[in-house]
Amino acid sequence: MIETTSLRSEHNQIQKHANRLSRAVMRPLPPERSELERIRRDFTMDVARHLNHEDAHVYPELLESEDAAIRAIACRLIAESGVLTAKFDAYCRRWSNAAIVADWSGFRYASSELLALIERRMVAEEYELYPLIDGDADDGRLARWSGTTNPTRLQLQSASARR
Question: Which phi-psi region, left, alpha or beta, contains residue 65 (left: φ > 0; alpha: ψ -120 to 50)?
């Protein structure tokens, strides 16, 4: 069976890098190039590694589960994963250093959108899927994630609503 402890650890690492990226894109001007490159590299490498691991090892096994609820959630998350992976790949291709310098505001918005998508995915896994795999109910993990809504996305959304 799937070991969720390591998956949760990967989520924690991704969340740490997502928080760093979120703080960076909340700035009105880009941070120093080397700092932003490091933040982006750490974030994208961890996300890519995690998505590849899930696609290759986690979800194929979950689709073989005897538990119908696990199979159903796995099917839904696989379908959603296609959208997430496509958006993640497009983000990585689109936002080179030159593109970020040319359109900091666009990068800020695109980053906040991607961060929100990734967070929704991790929350779904943490609170819908992993408890079923582990055979337990929510044991308070939601409190750990409850304050992580991407503030940049909310800030940018409210700014666009005022226009």
Answer: beta
Q: What is the pLDDT of residues 86-110, one digit of tens each?
A: 999 999 999 999 999 999 999 999 9
Mean pLDDT for the chain overall: 86
| Amino acid at position 15, single letter | Q
pLDDT tens sequence across 2-16: 899 999 999 999 999
Spatial separation of the C-alpha atoms in residues 113 and 154, rounded to whole Å: 10
- Going 56 to 57 to 59 to 64, the CA torsion angle's sign is positive
Fold classification of 4-162 is: Four Helix Bundle (Hemerythrin (Met), subunit A) (1.20.120)
SS3 (DSSP) at 131 = helix
Question: Alpha-carbon distance 46 to 49, whole Å?
Answer: 5
